[in-house]
Specification:
Blueprint: E1 6-11, H1 15-18, H2 29-33, H3 45-54, E2 59-64, E3 66-67, E4 76-77, H4 80-89, E5 94-99, H5 105-117, E6 123-126, H6 141-150, E7 154-157, H7 178-185, E8 191-194, H8 201-210, E9 214-217, H9 223-226, H10 228-235, E10 242-243, H11 253-261, H12 267-282
Parallel strand pairs: 1-2, 2-5, 5-6, 6-7, 7-8, 8-9, 9-10
Antiparallel strand pairs: 3-4
Helix pairs in contact: 5-6
Length: 286
Amino acid sequence: MSCVIIDVSVHLSDKTSKAAQVNWERPMLNRIHSKHSHGFSAITIDEQFKQMDEAGITAALLVATKVGRVGLPGTWQVDPETVLSATKKYKGRFFGLMGIDPFSGNSGLKELEKYVSDHGFVGAHVSPHWFGMSPDDARLFPFYAKCLELDIPIQIHIGSSLIHTQAQQLLSLGNPTSLDEIAYTMPFLKMVATNSGWPWIEELISASNKHENIYVVTDKHPVSALGWPLLNYIKSWGTNRVLFGADFPSAKYQEVLSEMNELNLSDQSKARLMGLNAVELYKLSV
């Protein structure tokens, strides 16, 4: 695969970033995602870059992850300075995404602006269900407004929460129809729906088709397992709306790339999906 390849949603797995995952439970992961699941042991940022480079990945967007309200079981919040350090060391190969904690209020808004305006982060990222919210919750709109002001895309977890334990009783609040309200209120806000929208794939495709500012990421689940609607969207009328995500480090790059090659995409569709859409949306210099 010789085209530009951008992995648009990557979580760091170094010891510092993993430290907050002591109580992290993912009992459903292997059931949903067994083909690519390889565990979550810590690796250094340098090793993470090496694996990306060896696989021929042009660049990756690194999330300063914020999932779960501080103090609750399973919370995982990564220091954005860790991401910033990686983007400085591997300039032009790693780009930062600022995670959003909707309970952080004005300080969170200032933090988002700081890392975008002062440190070159190219977008934001939020997983509303980790905070007991749907994407159209009013408490998220100040962050959407800030993203609009900064002219950056925001990745929003859409689909099942995939986790339900006594410590993490997360409701699946990410139905794609929740993006309707946001799109009508902020038609110029660039929203990037992650996790392929599973199990509401067709609903997400419909939302993306309906609103020009809604994009789809093919991470978390193998595209071939998600069925004809998403593959057809990639190949035809949604060619400019779908972005590639490998779900690294829980998936191995070589396996994911091999699977993408088996989709029999046209050269144009493959180029758009694997990198060009991300380059244009995030205004990347790669």
